[in-house]
UniProtKB/TrEMBL annotation:
The protein's Enzyme Commission number: 2.3.1.189
The organism's place on the tree of life at top rank: Bacteria
A GO molecular-function annotation: mycothiol synthase activity
Residues of the N-acetyltransferase domain: 2-148
EC category: transferase
Pfam families: Acetyltransf_1 (PF00583)
InterPro entries per UniProt: Acyl_CoA_acyltransferase, Bact_Acetyltransf, GNAT_dom
Protein keywords: Acyltransferase, Transferase
Protein name: Mycothiol acetyltransferase
Keyword Transcription regulation found: no
Length: 148
C-alpha cells in the first residue's frame, strides 16, 4: 500500500495530469493550471487540502478536500471534492486508503461530517462510498451565479 501524505510542490505537475484525467473521465475539459493548483493547495491562503498516494514511479492517486460549514449548527465539515486513482493502480485499496486519510484529516480539523458527490450514473462510485460508510442523502436544490 503506498503511503498517503499531504501534497508538496513537486507533486503538483502529476496531480495536474491526474485532475485533467479525472475531468476527461467525466467528459469534461479541465482548465486547471499549475499556477491555480499551487495557489489553491499550497498558497498563502490554501483553499484545498490535497492528499496524495505515492508510488515507486510517481503518484497513484489523490484526494482533494474543501471546507464546508453548517453555520447554524456550528458544525464544520469537509467535501471530498475529488478522489482519483490511476487506472493502473485501481483494485489495490488505494482509494480506500485515500478516503481513510481524508476522514482522518477532517476529524483532526474538528469536522463532524464529510460529504462527497458522484454522477447520477456512476454506480461504481456510489457503491464504493456506501461500502466506505457514507450514507446517501437527498441533495437540496442548489443555485449558482457566476462572478466576473
Amino acid at each position: 500500500m503506498p503511503p498517503i501524505r499531504p501534497a508538496v510542490k513537486s507533486d503538483l505537475p502529476m496531480v495536474l495530469d491526474l485532475a485533467h484525467a479525472l475531468a476527461a473521465y467525466h467528459g469534461d475539459t479541465a482548465t486547471l493550471t499549475l499556477a491555480a493548483l499551487e495557489r489553491d493547495c499550497l498558497g498563502e491562503a490554501p483553499w484545498v487540502t490535497l492528499l496524495v498516494a505515492e508510488g515507486a514511479t510517481g503518484l497513484h492517486g489523490y484526494a482533494a478536500l474543501c471546507p464546508q460549514t453548517q453555520l447554524q449548527f456550528g458544525a464544520r465539515g469537509m467535501d471530498l471534492h475529488h478522489l482519483f486513482v490511476c487506472d493502473t493502480a485501481r483494485g489495490r485499496g488505494i482509494g480506500k486508503a485515500l478516503v481513510a486519510a481524508a476522514l482522518e484529516h477532517a476529524e483532526a480539523q474538528g469536522c463532524s461530517y464529510v460529504t462527497v458527490g458522484t454522477g447520477t450514473q456512476n454506480r461504481r462510485a456510489q457503491s464504493f462510498y456506501r461500502a466506505a460508510g457514507f450514507d446517501q442523502i437527498t441533495p437540496d436544490p442548489r443555485f449558482r451565479r457566476r462572478l466576473a
